[in-house]
């Protein structure tokens, strides 16, 4: 299994616009951080976790030519605003998209041109509700009353007065929202299959999801891991974990809090992500971390 860090920065990214601190002016590529996201690959199966506003550039930089499925940790736009850039990955085959109900609701509202009033060229996304095991639907979705179809006003030709032919595809059921209590999701098949297990986290007061994929756990944007979720993380080999900065923060782990999680789980290797410019220079911050713990950086890629 291969893991590629597409972005390791917080919501503002690094450098921060208007900031003139030494870190934001650093020429070290490891100090330049796009919004947090990873790609997990096994054979022909490729899973994208989060798709923020930097996704198009991240995809070009990483050479991503296929995506098998997308999982969202939460709706904050630094993790979800790249949805429209997925259109190129869904022209031939609908792209499965997994999110919990509160997130799916916002997607349906904010991206109506994709789901409820689709138009030609919009991403073909199959939106699935994802629920951690044992949970009931939180804030159940009230699906909009719609036939999931669309119409196009065909402009008349300026010279002939005849409406030009326009290829209007039939509304596809992939435009609708599939409401299913999916506790685990298997993406791919055979030796390339990857099983994705959702992990409940708290991001301040907001319930969000982390994910475990085999030996990997990806836990970003968190301040608390409920007691029920620790058993799901036992035996994890590689941990990618939120560590915004050295100082405490209301909605993210600080470095010291993240290290408490590392001490409890004892993974073989840990990479901190979702870091702000307050983390300092990559090269200097690395020296302050214990053995086996590192700062992630954009384009970092490794096999497990």
Low-confidence stretches: 137-181
* Average residue pLDDT: 85
Whole-angstrom Rg: 21 Å
Main β sheet profile: 8 strands, mixed
Q: Provide the succession of SSEs.
A: EEEHEHEHHEEEEEEEHEHEE
In DSSP terms, counting alpha (H) and pi (I) runs of 4 or more, how many helices? 6
Give the strand content.
25-35%
Tertiary shape? globular
What would your notes on this structure say?
Strands 7-6-5-4-3-2-1-15 form an eight-stranded mixed beta sheet. A seven-stranded mixed beta sheet has the order 8-9-10-11-12-13-14. The protein is globular and about 50 Å long. It is built from six helices and 15 strands. The chain is of the alpha/beta class and 304 residues long. Residues 137-181 have low confidence and may be disordered. The longest helix has 11 residues, at 255-265. The N and C termini lie close together (5 Å). 14% of the residues lie in helices and 26% in strands.
Short description:
About 15% of the residues have low confidence. With 304 residues, this protein is of the alpha/beta class.
Protein traits:
alpha/beta; 304 residues; seven-stranded mixed sheet
SSE layout:
Elements: E1 2-7, E2 37-42, E3 45-49, H1 55-62, E4 69-71, H2 77-80, E5 95-99, H3 101-110, H4 112-115, E6 125-130, E7 177-182, E8 185-187, E9 194-203, E10 206-213, E11 216-219, E12 238-242, H5 255-265, E13 269-273, H6 282-286, E14 293-295, E15 301-303
Parallel strand pairs: 3-4, 4-5, 5-6, 6-7, 11-12, 12-13, 13-14
Antiparallel strand pairs: 1-2, 1-15, 2-3, 8-9, 9-10, 10-11
């Amino acid at each position: 299994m291969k893991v590629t860090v597409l972005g390791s920065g917080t919501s503002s990214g690094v450098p921060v616009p208007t900031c003139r601190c030494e870190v934001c002016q650093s020429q070290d590529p490891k100090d330049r951080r796009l919004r947090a996201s990873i790609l997990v690959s096994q054979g022909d199966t490729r899973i994208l976790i989060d798709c923020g506003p930097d996704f198009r550039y991240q995809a070009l930089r990483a050479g991503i030519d296929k995506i098998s499925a997308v999982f969202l940790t939460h709706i904050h736009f630094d993790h979800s605003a790249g949805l429209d850039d997925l259109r190129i990955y869904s022209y031939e085959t609908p792209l499965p998209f997994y999110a919990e109900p509160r997130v799916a609701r916002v997607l349906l509202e904010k991206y109506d041109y994709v789901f409820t009033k689709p138009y030609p060229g919009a991403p073909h996304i199959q939106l699935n509700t994802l629920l951690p095991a044992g949970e009931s639907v939180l804030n159940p979705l009230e699906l909009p009353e719609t036939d999931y179809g669309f119409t196009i006003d065909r402009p008349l030709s300026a010279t002939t007065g005849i409406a030009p032919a326009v290829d209007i595809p039939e509304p596809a059921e992939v435009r609708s929202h599939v409401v299913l209590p999916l506790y685990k999701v298997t993406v791919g098949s055979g030796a390339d299959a990857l099983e994705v297990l959702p992990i409940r986290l708290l991001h301040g007061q907001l319930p969000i999801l982390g994910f475990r994929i085999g030996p990997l756990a990806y836990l970003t944007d968190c301040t608390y891991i409920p007691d029920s979720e620790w058993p799901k993380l036992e035996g994890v080999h590689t941990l990618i974990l939120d560590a915004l900065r050295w100082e405490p923060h209301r909605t993210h782990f600080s470095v010291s809090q993240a290290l408490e999680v590392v001490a409890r789980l004892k993974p073989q290797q840990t990479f901190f992500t979702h870091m702000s410019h307050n983390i300092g220079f990559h090269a200097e911050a690395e020296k302050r971390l214990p053995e086996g713990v590192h700062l992630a950086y954009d384009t970092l890629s490794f096999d497990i």
